[in-house]
Amino acid sequence: MNDPDHNSDTLRPVAAPEHLAEPLLAAKTKEHGGDFYSRLIFWLCLILAIVSVIASGWAFIGFAENDTGFMHLLSAFLLCFGIGALAYGPLGLTAYFAKKAIYKPMPRLRAIIVILLAWPWLPFAFILAKVSQYGLFAGILAAFTAILIILWAVRYFTNQ
After folding, report:
1. Number of folded domains that form the chain
2. What is the DSSP string of 88-114?
3. For residue range 126-152, what is the model confidence (pLDDT) as tens digits?
4. Which end is more exposed in the chain, N or C (fewer Cβ atoms within 10 Å of the end residue's Cβ)?
């Protein structure tokens, strides 16, 4: 420490100043940035996927109250969760794609997959709305969700 070339008042940075600012700016933009519509689709699909899994479980519990045989329970499980997979499968995959699209634009192939997953819900929503009074609410919700998802995915064709 008694070196004449050593000055204790000056600090020498290890990296150049422009390299010090990059990680701070990148972290700040990622924290405050993000696509609002992708975040909306992510939460909407995630909540509806969880609700559809719960509804499948609720229907299975209804079957399990009356049937005690293993084969009956197995067929009820496959029926409830198999039909439920038509909802929570596409919704879960769409939520996964939307989560990735929050900070990075979604590729066109994923947008096509999302449209192909959401498109069959439009006629299904119409049929569901015609079945009963309770089906009307579910049909409107399914149609609204499918239209939002399709419009969100179509947006990536115009941005690229």
Report:
1. 1
2. HHHHHHHHHHHHHHTTSPPPHHHHHHH
3. 998 998 888 898 899 999 999 999 999
4. N
Mark 50-82 as b/e (b = at least 16 C-beta within 10 Å).
eebbebbeebbeeeeeeeeeeeeeeebeeebbe
User: What are the tens digits of pLDDT across the range 1-24?
Assistant: 556 555 566 666 666 656 555 555
Tell me the pLDDT band of 105, cut-offs 50, 70 and 90.
Answer: confident
Q: Is residue 152 in a domain?
A: yes
Q: Is 80 part of any domain? A: yes
Task: Tell me which residue of 85, 61, 83 sits closest to 73, measured CA to CA.
Answer: 61
Q: Please answer whether residues 56 and 88 qualify as being in contact, where contact means their C-beta atoms are separated by less than 8 angstroms.
A: yes
Residue 103 lies in a domain: yes
Rounded Cα–Cα distance for residues 145 and 143 (Å): 5
